[in-house]
Amino acid sequence: MRNLSDQEIIDSVRKGNDSDYAIIVNRYKNKAFSMLKRMLKNEFDAEEVLQDCFLKAYKSINAFKGDSKFSTWFYRIVYNSALTKLSSQKRKTESEMTSVEDHFNLESEYNTEEIEKEDVKKLIHATISKLPERYSAVITMFYLNEMTIDEISEVMEISVSNVKVILHRSRNALRDLILNSRLAEELI
Amino acid sequence: MIKITDEILNKYLDGELSREETEQVKSQLQSSEELRRKFNALKLVHEKLNMLQEDELSLHFTESLMKQIVKKQFVIPKQQKYFIASVATFITILCLVIFGFSISAVISTTSTSVTESKSVLDSVSYLTDGLVKTLKQLFSGAGLSIIGSIFSIIVLISGYFFFEMQKRSKAHLSNGQQM
Questions:
Q1: Whole-angstrom Cα distance, residue A68 to residue A7?
Q2: How many alpha carbons lie under 13 Å from residue B107 in its C-beta half-sphere?
């Protein structure tokens, strides 16, 4: 069977073939879960929120006009639901407390002297979860979901230049982590 | 000569600089070991991030979600439940009032005749006849117009609430789209 596009699946669901929605779920569940897990820093919450997101998207599927890609529309639901969950947990979300100009220090999280060569990839991947929510969201959408900067700005409802600033800052933070490790000379 | 900042290095990595700027960065990278070190570390981060892998969800996730979707389709919303319950209660009360009124009317007019009857069967058939007669009277002429008016009012009120409910659910769907 040929690979159906998102729009074709949505049209089919709208016609009453609800079981086709499972194709959409299988297509996006792991990517959206990866994003939520890194934003919420908790696997259980991520799964719970993701389930709500798919239900919300299903309920609103008739209202999806197709002005943007389905993925962008769906990730906006995911991103906003994550922020809602974070604010309900009374955690200080980025949008509430600061602009893009905030600071974070990843090195205080790790003993950079103990980083082993083979652990670098693992360390970088694990460190994404230590980044503030918006930063980990941008990294996940850009590298894992292979979204463009424009699409990310649409999802997060911020300017393209702000998305770039977040992306650059996240990379710089991870770069500094490597530069300050004892394996810096060996790795680069 | 441009000053090589972290932002310029990131833009160079993403291929976002002009040809002239790119040449300048290249030349400065060749001459400065510190800058080269910084750029190589950034490139390493970029390469490792490109290897980012998806987290796997449990196999039952889709199955359980689809079950929830099917279940939710058959569940009447809470608001709708209250509305249906209130209309049903109102109709039941109205029927009970009509029935009660008919019974009391039959009993009050035939109590003497019933006590005088010899068998239970006779009294039951007498009461039934009386009830039918009273109901016939109630549903004929002026009585029918009153009951008809009451039902019309019920239908109009129900129609209004149903229309409001549709409007609200439409607004809810639009909110979902904006979200």
A1: 11
A2: 6
Distance from CA of B83 to the nearest CA of A (A): 22
Residues A115, A84 share a domain? no
CATH code for the domain of A60: 1.10.1740.10
Distance in Å, alpha carbon of B46 to nearest chain A alpha carbon: 7
Q: How many CB pairs under 8 A join A and B?
A: 116
Range of the domain at A17: 1-91
Do A11 and A74 fall into the same domain? yes
> Does A62 sit within 8 Å of B10, measured CB to CB?
no
Distance CA B24, CA B2 (A): 7
Clarify whether residues A53 and A106 are in a common domain. no
Same domain, A82 and A109: no
Residues 132-161 of A with CB under 8 A from B: 139-140, 143-144
- Cα distances from A79 to residues A2, A146, A157, A178, B179, in angstroms, run 30, 16, 10, 29, 10
A contact residues 78-137, partner B, Cβ 8 Å cutoff? 80, 120-121, 124-125, 128
What does the block give as tokens for B67? 């079950």
This prediction has a pTM of 0.66
Instruction: Show which of A61, A91, A121 is a domain's final residue.
Output: A91
Per-residue pLDDT of chain A (188 residues; tens, 9 = 90+): 568 899 999 999 998 888 899 999 999 999 999 999 999 988 999 999 999 999 999 999 988 888 889 999 999 999 999 999 998 876 554 454 444 445 566 665 655 555 565 577 777 887 888 889 999 999 999 999 999 999 999 999 999 999 999 999 999 998 988 887 766 666 66
